[in-house]
From TrEMBL:
The keyword Coiled coil applies. Residues 605-614 have a biased composition (Low complexity). CDD domains: PDZ_rhophilin-like (cd06712). The keyword Coiled coil applies. This is Rhophilin Rho GTPase binding protein 1. Residues 513-580 form the PDZ domain. Residues 23-97 form the REM-1 domain. Gene3D superfamilies: 2.30.42.10, alix/aip1 like domains, HR1 repeat. The lineage of its organism: Eukaryota, Metazoa, Chordata, Craniata, Vertebrata.
Length: 670
């Protein structure tokens, strides 16, 4: 072909038109995206208005029938809201949850929707508590209160990624610190924490801060499910990331189930959390299988690989059968969406049929097994319970016998895939594109094509029955605790002082300023510890005793400088620098009844393997028993776990083990 050069100016109009078309194409796509976003926002506003009206009716009526009808309507509204928000997130992220830019179609997962909450005013109760109990001006902590409110406001709509998890974890850590600092065994913050149920959409509210912490922990687990469902599982790395996310979600639900009691909403009940934990573990097992069998690297001629895939698929099917059995039982059956139960049932049938398909491929398309491989192959099939005769090799060596058994497994695969499609048609489809149906239909066409290839018209041999496949996996997923203590941020109310002393469970009296002068024997006191520094001993007849200082007082200010967070060496250096003129001290004296920890346990561990459970026990934050009968008790921490499991909390009055003293704990006489 000879390329001819155009004269100058020729084709300029065509080029300009093509450039205009290229420019208009992105504009058209952006306009379509903006139109879709605007439509979704309008639908979300409409659903929110409907939920507000239904919520008001739910609270106003006492008729049980009306409440049931309104609760059902709230569940529908909540489902629509979750779908709209997920669609909006996909538009914003530009990610197709089904394909992820890959040609392979993956089976959809079940992500949980986040619990929603309303705005909360922390200002009045916190200012009052700071003024009354801590003896400080509550108005001076306006900046800290605004920071807490801004953090909670941002936590209500986290992004569906690691940044969203970090935001939820940061707020959860601040709730731990608030619990340790401001809560007493006999009191609360006098705030109503209101959250909407993730499964039913019904609102619930309580005064207990534990309800706020439990709801945030639930959202941490739910966000892990959304991150896992959005992974590109067509590649090995994406499948491994999905396994990690679902394991973290299961760990969050397990932690919530073990440590919370008297949940006011169905999604946080023990039965629902147990079902959700099993569901996350089954989805993690499915991701393990997908990580083993990417379409690009499957080896249909490898007998051992096909047998391995068959047992992995059987393991996934067994996990989903267990989940379906749990979800079909009351009261979980009344809370979880029907589409979830159907999806789990369909997956159980699909992976069972997939296991039989891989066995058929091992029999028909793979080379016969060697003598050394036969014992391993015999473990692939389950022994029939009624059979008492010892069975021969699981995989026959003759080609005819292999084809006959392969056809039997293919027949079971086809029947299972047809059953999965039948179950799927019984469920009302809420999405426009049904990926699960496409996956099962594609697998069915593959099985039918293989069966027609093996089927012969002159084949009059007696049909054999395909045995069940033994489930087995090389990687059993385990629930992993979310990273609640990772990147522990600073305490927002840091200025109030160390938690070991300055918390609502302690009572103290502010003394001073006291002018302390140096005598011939020094100041006449011994200091010990850090943040705050403790007066460990007062010499009788010395300058400190004459000034009114007592053993057990804590130094909170030196020469007008707040020193609640000073180290031992810093306070000693400031006193020694005072010279003969002396120093002005301000101390706090603990009053009787304060539960101050010993010197070896000055800093309470707020977050650990058991998270807040340790903190509440160490601080004595026990949920008070209600003084009147209530049909819905307060959400509280469970007391079932033994102290040995929560780690290192000694019984009151028990002698503590001696530990080597740190330099700050060594007495320093002044």
């Amino acid at each position: 072909m000879i390329l001819e050069e155009r004269p100058d100016g020729a084709g300029t109009g065509e080029k300009s038109a093509r450039l205009q078309d290229c420019d208009s194409l992105p504009q058209t796509q952006r306009g379509q995206l903006q139109s879709r976003r605007a439509r979704i926002y309008q639908q979300i506003d409409k659903e929110l208005q409907m939920r507000t009206g239904a919520e008001n009716l739910y609270r106003a009526t006492s008729n049980s029938r009306v409440r049931e009808t309104v609760a059902l309507e709230l569940s529908y509204v909540n489902s629509h809201l979750q779908l709209l928000k997920e669609e909006l997130e996909e538009l914003s992220g530009g990610v197709d949850s089904g394909r992820h830019g890959s040609e392979a179609v993956t089976v959809p997962m079940i992500p949980l929707g986040l619990k929603e909450t309303k705005e909360l005013d922390w200002s009045t109760p916190l200012k009052e508590l700071i003024s009354v109990h801590f003896g400080e001006d509550g108005a001076s902590y306006e900046a800290e209160i605004r920071e807490l409110e801004a953090l909670r406001q941002a936590m209500r709509t986290p992004s569906r990624n690691e940044a969203g998890l970090e935001l939820l974890t940061t707020y959860y850590q601040q709730l731990c610190l608030l619990d340790a600092r401001f809560l007493t065994p006999a009191g609360s913050l006098r705030l109503f924490f209101q959250w909407y149920d993730s499964l039913t959409g019904v609102p619930a509210q309580q005064r207990a801060l534990a309800f706020e912490k439990g709801s945030v922990l639930f959202n941490i687990g739910a966000l892990h499910t959304q991150i896992g469902a959005r992974q590109d599982r067509a590649c090995v790395e994406g499948a491994h990331c999905a396994v990690e996310a679902f394991q973290r979600a299961a760990g969050a639900f397990s932690l919530l189930r073990e440590n919370f009691s008297h949940a006011p909403s169905p999604d946080m009940s023990a039965a629902s959390l147990s079902a959700l934990e099993q569901l996350m573990m089954a989805q993690a097992q499915e991701c393990v299988f997908e990580g083993l069998s990417p379409p690009a690297s499957m080896a249909p001629r490898d007998c051992l690989a096909q047998l391995h895939l068959a047992q992995e698929a059987a393991q996934v099917a067994a996990e989903y059968r267990l989940v379906h059995r749990t979800m079909a039982q009351p009261p979980v059956h009344d809370y979880l969406p029907v589409s979830w139960t159907t999806l789990v049932h369909v997956k159980a049938e699909y992976f069972c049929s997939l296991a039989h398909y891989h066995i058929a491929m091992a029999l028909c398309d793979s080379s016969p097994a060697t003598e050394g491989e036969l014992p391993a192959h015999e473990q692939v099939f389950l022994q029939p319970p009624a059979s008492s005769k010892p069975r021969g090799p699981a995989l026959p060596l003759e080609l005819g016998e292999r084809r006959k058994l392969g056809k039997a497994h293919l027949k079971r695969a086809i029947l299972g895939q047809e059953e999965a499609l039948r179950l799927h048609t019984l469920c009302r489809v809420l999405r426009e594109v049904d990926l699960l149906r496409a996956v099962v239909a594609q697998a069915l066409q593959r099985s039918l094509a293989k069966y027609s290839e093996l089927d012969c018209e002159d084949d009059f041999c007696e049909a054999v029955e395909a045995p069940d496949i033994r489930p087995k996996t090389h990687q059993k997923p385990e629930a992993r605790m979310p990273r609640l203590s990772q990147g522990m941020g600073p305490d927002i109310f840091h200025r109030l002082g160390p938690l070991s002393v300055f918390s609502a469970k302690n009572r103290w009296r502010l003394v001073g300023p006291i002018h302390l002068t140096r005598g011939e024997g020094g100041f006449g006191l011994t200091l010990r510890g850090d943040s705050p520094v403790l007066i460990a001993a007062v010499i009788p007849g010395g300058q400190a005793a004459a000034a009114g200082l007592k053993e057990g007082d804590y130094i909170v200010a030196v020469n007008g400088q707040p020193c609640r967070w000073w180290r031992h060496a810093e306070v000693v250096a400031e006193l020694r620098a005072a010279g003969d003129a002396g120093a002005s001290l301000q101390v706090v004296s603990l009053l009787p009844g304060s539960g101050l920890p010993g010197l070896g346990d000055r800093r309470p561990a707020l977050l650990g393997p058991r998270g807040l459970l340790r903190s509440q026990r160490e601080h004595g934050c026990k949920t008070p028993a209600s003084t009147r009968a209530s049909p819905r008790p307060l959400l509280g921490w469970s007391r079932k776990t033994q102290q040995g499991k929560t780690g290192g909390c000694s019984q009151p009055g028990a002698p503590a083990k001696a530990a080597p003293p740190s330099p700050s704990e060594l007495p320093g006489r002044l």
